[in-house]
PBP domain-containing protein (Streptomyces brasiliensis), 338 residues
Amino acid sequence: MNKRMAAVAVAAVGLAGLLTGTIAVTQAAADPSGTPTYRQLSGVGSDTTQDVMNGMANAVTINGTKVIGSYDATGSANITTKDPATKPGCTMTRPNGSGAGRTALQNSLQANAGAGDGCLDFARSSSLNLAASNPGLTYVPFAVDAVTYAVTPTGTTPRKLTLNDLKAIYHCDANYVGTAPNYSLNVLLPQAGSGTRSFWESQMGITDADVVAGIYPCIKDTKNGKPVQEHDGRVLDDKSIVPFSIAQYNSQASQTIADLRGRAILGTIDGLAPTVLNSNFGVKRDVYNVIPTSKIATAPYSQVFVGSDSLICKQTSVINTYGFAVNPNCGSTSQQTP
C-alpha cells in the first residue's frame, strides 16, 4: 500500500463514520471530566478501551448524575479515584494496561488490603483472563474490536499478509525476519500487562512466558529503553511491525481521540482489509468491563454494566463513534473467574 492508497483507506473510514452518524465532534477528555469530580464507579486498565469508556463516562447518567469515572492508562504518575474528604487513601500509581487494571481492582476489593482498599470498582480489559481470583470477577463484554499489524508506508514489510505469515514473523522465522544479531525486521509487542499484547500472542501461537524467557529473540517490547505503548504508531520505523487495534486506529484517524498514529498504516490479513466493520474482521476480540461477581445484582453495577438493556449497552452510538462494533452479547455475565 502506498501513501495515496493509505490516504484513501483513511478517507473511507471517515466517510463510513459520517454515513452512520458516529463521528464525534470533540475528542474525549482523559480521566473524569465535569461534575461530579469523583464517581460511584471508578475504573482503570486497558489502553484500548480507555477512550470509549471516557465517552461512556460522559454519556451514562443515573438521575442526571454521571456515575462512571474512567482513568486513562497513561498520563500523570498518580490518580485519585475517590473524594479524599470522605474516602482518604485513594491516591495510587496509575495502572497501565488490562493486566495492571485487573490487579489494581483485585487489590482494591481485598479487605484490609492497605493502599487502594475500596478505591476501584471496575477494570477495563481488552483480553479475557479467567484464572482463579479472590474475590471472584466477572468479565462483562460490551464491544467488539479487531487487531491487525501496523507498519510504515516506506518500509519493506508487505501490506498484505496471511495469518500464517504473521505467525512465522512472531516465531522469528529467519525467512521473514533475518538472523541475529542484526534482524532485518524489528518485531514489536506492547508493554507487559497489555491486553493487546496477550491477545496478539494468543493469535500468533506464542506464550508470554516464552517471550519473556527470550525463546523468540527477535521480539522486543521496548524501544530506546522505553516500553512500547500499545496503539502508538510513533514507535515504528521502516524496519518495524507491531499489533494495532483497528478501533483505535480508526478513531485516531477521525480525530475522535488524540492522533498517535505517526506514520503507521494498517496491514491486510488473509485478504480482508482493516477498514471493514470490526465484527467482520478475521482477528477480532471481545472487550470487557470487569466487575466484582458479588456486585452483579447490586446497583449501580446492575444498571450500568449488566444485561443487554444496561446503560452501557444502550449507548450504541458511543461504541460506534470510537471505532468498535456493538457486542451481540453485550451485558452478559457468563464469563466469571472461579
Confidence is low (pLDDT under 50) at residues 1-26. Residues 144-280 form a domain with the D-Maltodextrin-Binding Protein; domain 2 fold (CATH 3.40.190.10). The chain has two domains: 20-142+288-336, 144-280. The chain is about 25% helix and 20% strand.
